[in-house]
Structure formats: structure tokens, C-alpha cells
Amino acid sequence: MKTSRRGRTLISAAVLGVTGIALAACSGGPGQTDEGGGEDDNVVTVYGTIVTPEQELLEESWADWEEENDIDIQYEGSKEFEAQIAVRAQGGNPPDIAIFPQPGLMADMATRGYLLPAPEGVADNVAEYWTDDWAGYATVDDTLYGAPLMASVKGWVWYSPSLFEENGWEVPTDWQGLLDLTAEIQSATGKPPWCVGFASDAATGWPGTDWIEDIVLRQSGTDVYDQWVANEVKFTDPQIKSAFDEFAKIIQDPNYVNAGFGGIDTIVTTPFGTDPAAAMVAGDCILHHQASFFDGFLSDAGGEVAEDGDIWAFLLPPFEAGSGEGGAVVTGGGEIVAAFDDSESTVKVQEYLSSPEWANSRVSLGGVISANKGLDPENASSNVLKEAIAILQDDTTTFRFDASDLMPSAVGSGTFWKGMVDWVNGTDTDTVLQQIESGWPSS
């Protein structure tokens, strides 16, 4: 994967500034020890955002390893992770290990002394099995604090191959082609083609940020994308506003959304995964924009994900036809595993989670992928996921991590998420962009 030096060092001074998280500045975090070794009781607590039903697969992925190593991994999943991890760390009750879905949030914690630098075994695994791009997302001020875990390739447009064949619809090669396809489907069916769900409990709004990020990257390019993440290009910049304007051509047109659920007003109350998946399998929704992990929701809804199956996917096309030649241009996401404790058992768990052995174990259980270079793509549960792994492992791919996850949490999981909700509910674009920008730390 190719990114610029800037793309690997996005945890900048701006990101490390004061955020909306109520973390007290300190020289040493609650999980740190004076002697460099935490108490070891063979129990390791892990806290993250992964909840049922994915939680069961996560716990299954390490079950055999737990038994072999006589270590009890006690995992707690929470939809309130982004807020509660700060509260728990500040209150002196952090988990041994946290699975951070946003590098920006991990950086917030690291710069306040709550996280410990990655142990040697983890650093060795990161150097061997992860690209510099991914290592950079776990690095703050030249210190590696953790290792990537799972990954996703974002920007897929999910559709029904049989409906496309029956109606002569073709996969578009540029952004205007996608808009034309949308109009063509609406005209042929008399119904909105797109189903959209922004609802995600405390994280409601993030699916909208994914759309904006995909459009910014394709319309304005990597330099603007990187500068936007670093706040060198503001949300109020015309290049960012243009991305909102383009997205509005779909999401703010009542003829185009919200298939299977109602009008535009249902977007913020429609769950991002389960409901669109069920609508697609039922044939009530023809187009849906979501990351590679949507494959699992479709399978759970009873759909077969295959080129000749119920549902397949194509990547959101480049803004101009041909501009993506030479390799895929994609956004993506993932998690970073970092620790508050350095007991022997905690270190062993960290090392295992950063290894290809764990990656292959979890991916073989279905529904997810990893960017670990030791991962065998054949372990993926569907051809879409195999294709996503191939994209991540392809040196010609231009990859950018989800921008909102790299921004300071006050913006990325704060004003940006909220701004998308306000915008789709009718607040004008200029007001929303100013409101999002206001979340950036002043120093």
C-alpha cells in the first residue's frame, strides 16, 4: 500500500491537543507500574467496541490459545467504549488491554501517559507483519504503542447482480456514472434505490462520515485528504464543501433514499448494519454503501454474497473515469490494540493478537479481514472479503485510514458525527461545516 510520509504521521500536534475527552494531564497513567512490571494473575481484561454477535467470534478466536497458555482473557464489549475508556482510565480502573477503533483516540490516551509503549515482541510482529502505514497509525511521537488488529476496506457499493442483469444496469466507472445509475434505477422502479442507516448508539452519524471521506479522497486526492486530517485544510474549505454537495445529490434527494424505511428523516434512526442488510436481502433496497464487514450482516440476514449470488459489491468509482488506474484508491478502518498494564500475561496476549496466528484464526471464523501480511486470503469467508484482503496486500493500492478515526476525538467522534446527523436532518451545509470545524483543538 502506498501512502505519503504525511499519511504515516497523521498523529500531529493538532491531534495531540486538548480534546473533548475529560482526561487529566499526568506524568504516569493508572495502568503504569513503578518497576516496569504489572501484577500477573493469569487473567487479562480486554475492553473494546466489538459486541454480540461478533463478540462471540472474537472470544472463539483466542479460546484454544487461552487454554494452551493458561491465560484467561476476559473480554468486555461496549457500545459506549469511546466515552467510557477515558472515564475508566482517569478513574484508575482501566482494562489491561483496550481495542481502540480510532487511532486518534488512542493517541489522546497515549499523550496523557495512560498507555504503555508496545513491548518488544509486539514491536517485532508489527515490523514483520504490518506495513509502515499501519504501524504509523499505532505510533505517537515516534513511539509505537500497539499493533493493528482487524481491518476493513471501505467504500463498497452493495447491489443485486440478478437485478442488474435483468434490467441491463451496469457498474459505473466514475462518480457521475453512479449518479446516472441512481436516476436510472429510480426511473425504472419508481422507488428510492438507496438504503442508508446512520444509527449506531453513541456513535450515530459515522456512516455519513465514511461517504464524505470516500468522496474527498476520490475528488480531491491524497494530498488534500492528508491535509484535511491534519486540519491544514479546514472543513469550511471549498474542497470539503464540494464533497458534501456531491453526497447531497444522493442522500438529500427524497427520490433516492431511504429504500425500505421511509423518507430522509428515517436515516438517523435506521441501524447501520442489520436493517439495510435485511432490506437488501428482501429486495426492498437495491444500493447500499458500506465497508467490507457488511458482508457479515448480509450473511446473517440469509443472503448469499457472490458475483452470481444474492448480493455482490463494487468499489465506489473514481470521481473521473480512469483516475484510479494503477491501483485501487480506498479508505479503510481497523483497530489498534494497546495496553495499560505490562504484566507477563498481558504482554503475551498483546503478542498473540499482533501475530498472523491470531489473524488467521479470527478471519477463518468469518465476517472480517485483517491487513496482517501473514494472513492467508483463502481463510476469508467470502469472495468480497478475499478481494478486500487482496486490495490491502497490493503494493499498488493507495490506502487512507478513515479520516474521522485519525482526527482528534473531539472532532472525529464528536462534531463530525454530530454534524452528519444535523446535516441530514436539514441544517444547511455552511452551518454544519462551521460547527464541525469548531471542534478542533485550538492548539
Attribute tags:
43% helix; globular; disordered N terminus; 3-stranded antiparallel β-sheet; D-Maltodextrin-Binding Protein, domain 2; alpha/beta; 6-stranded mixed β-sheet
Can you describe this structure?
The protein is of the alpha/beta class and 443 residues long. It folds into two domains: 5-152 and 334-382, Periplasmic binding protein-like II (D-Maltodextrin-Binding Protein, domain 2, 3-Layer(aba) Sandwich), CATH 3.40.190.10; 156-328 and 408-437, D-Maltodextrin-Binding Protein, domain 2. Helices cover 43% and strands 12% of the residues. Strands 1, 2, 3, 6, 10 and 11 form a six-stranded mixed sheet that branches. Strand 1 (43-48), helix 2 (54-69) and strand 2 (72-77) form a beta-alpha-beta unit. Helix 17 (409-424) runs antiparallel to helix 18 (429-437). The longest helix is centred in the middle third of the chain and has 24 residues, at 206-229. It is globular, with a radius of gyration of 21 Å. Mean pLDDT is 89; it is low at 1-37.
